[in-house]
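Severity: low
Component: inverse-folding endpoint
Summary: output formatting inconsistent between runs
Steps to reproduce: submit the following structure tokens with default settings.
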């Protein structure tokens, strides 16, 4: 059966089948190839993407805006102060109105329920561009980057160190869809959402993926092919910063810790990086770092996604 994304929403990688994830990864490969060949076919000419941002953004905003421009369409930035949501208009009413103006929406929100409500009441595709629960576009770009570098997910150990947050949720869902081995190391009390773990493990049984949750960072990085981290204090958690710095210290990606992994282990970070906290300059700027390619791949992956949903 042919895969048809048109008109659908993407709120979590758990929304996608394994075949759909692989199709998007292949699409990203093709669009990246087109990009470096200097080809920018205007396949979304006349289309407008509305972009709702409750939180600041660098990579998400710029990559989506540039993607739409290079695809021949346009993107409309709708910041927290630009909409009537701040003055009490409901998300449902906002979704109904915007559906009559634009062809698709992305939303970067604090509470996942906000993007769920947008999708419920909109009559156009809605893409989760980050919520407290999930970051599916980042997860897809991460999978594409790993596949690009390693050529396969089979027998590849990916280790994530740090907070059990929205990024690791998307990695768990993604690896569960494509196979592979994800080892997540977090301090006690900061583990990924238990429901996400259960859903990912259920999917992993179908694909023979392996997802492991541990507390020991040294054990986690042993024999790792990829080491991944994120900030220890996400937006909205600033009051916990000092406490988190102390708790997460053993999970810092530094030369001593990476020496426990394979000598060619790749280093990933979804950015922005708090250098000297979750990762050292020596590692993020080192020869094994693929952080900047990982960031670039947001552009190519999101082109693949936008074309599938809007074309």
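Observed output (run 2 of 3):
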């Amino acid at each position: 059966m042919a895969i048809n994304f048109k008109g659908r929403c993407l709120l979590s990688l758990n929304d996608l089948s394994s075949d759909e994830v692989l199709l998007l990864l292949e699409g990203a490969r093709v669009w990246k190839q087109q990009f470096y060949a200097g080809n920018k076919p205007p396949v979304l000419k006349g289309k407008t993407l509305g972009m709702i941002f409750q939180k600041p953004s660098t990579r998400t905003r710029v990559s989506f805006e540039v993607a739409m421009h290079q695809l021949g369409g346009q993107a409309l930035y709708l910041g927290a102060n630009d909409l009537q949501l701040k003055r009490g208009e409901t998300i449902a009413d906002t979704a109904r109105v915007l559906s009559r103006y634009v062809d698709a929406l992305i939303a970067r929100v604090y509470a996942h329920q906000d993007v769920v409500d947008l999708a419920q009441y909109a009559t156009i595709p809605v893409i989760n561009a980050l919520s407290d629960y999930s970051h599916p576009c980042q997860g897809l770009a991460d999978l594409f980057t790993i596949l690009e570098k390693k050529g396969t997910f089979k027998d590849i150990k990916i280790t994530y160190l740090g907070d059990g947050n929205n990024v690791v949720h998307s990695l768990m869902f993604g690896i569960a869809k494509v196979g592979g081995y994800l080892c997540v190391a977090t301090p006690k009390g900061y583990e990924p959402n238990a429901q996400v773990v259960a859903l990912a493990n259920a999917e992993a049984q179908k694909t023979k993926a392996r997802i492991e949750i541990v507390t020991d960072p040294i054990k986690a990085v042993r024999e790792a092919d990829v080491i991944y981290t994120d900030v220890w204090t996400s937006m909205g958690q600033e009051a916990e910063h000092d406490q988190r710095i102390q708790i997460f210290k053993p999970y810092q990606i530094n030369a001593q810790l990476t020496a426990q992994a394979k000598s060619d282990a790749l280093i990933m970070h979804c950015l922005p990086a708090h250098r000297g906290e979750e990762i050292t300059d020596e590692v993020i700027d080192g020869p094994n770092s693929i952080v900047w390619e990982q960031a670039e791949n947001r552009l190519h992956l999101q082109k693949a996604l936008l074309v599938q949903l809007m074309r």
